[in-house]
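ok so dumb question maybe but i'm new to this and my supervisor (M.) told me to 'just get the structure for RWD domain-containing protein' and walked off. so i did the thing. is this what she meant?? sequence i used:
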Amino acid sequence: MSAAQELFQAEIEALQAQYSDTIELRTQEGSLEVSFEVRPELSSEGSQNFVQLRLTLKLPSGYPDEPPSVIVTHSKGLAKQRLDTLQARLKEESVQLQGDPMLGQLYEAAKATLTELNAPEGTCVLCLESLDAPADTREPVLLPCYHCYHWPCFKSWWRWEQRDRRARHSQLLTDLGANAAAELAKQSLIPNADGAFTVGCPICREGFDAAAWPLNVRAV
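this is what came out, is it supposed to look like this??
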């Protein structure tokens, strides 16, 4: 094994030891790909993780003299402009580190950028006001799909959805009696142990249960 190969093997082993919970190695079309799940560094207990992504570094045969290709996939909470900012920074970092082992540094650069960008963006679709201007002092509601809403807007919407589902649930029980179970399941009108119904995100319609986040919006 050449000195360059030994250095590369040492880099990979160090990455596997340091990032064992987030790293994945695979060979694709003859090239080694090193992938990381990247999330921001949270500033304090209770802070929310508004963004995340998967960073894949595709290594050319000439690595590290030739920098890896940077591929960002499975991003959440990041619109095109912020993704472009991230990729531009990683490309610049890879050029500066050209000739030296850089995979760990690129992961850390991605994490630092996500930490900087860890805030909701765009508008709350329930009121059409910017998420940068909170409707009150509480952080926006972050759903499992990574869509965000102002807390008061979401609470009002949630309560309306729960009342509507409760009314439909009661009507089906009245109309169908003991035969209502199948129709209730078909319409997703079976409440959980707390009496709350599963609803879908207003943007993507991905279903979620009140137990999926810590905010107390279940009282209707």
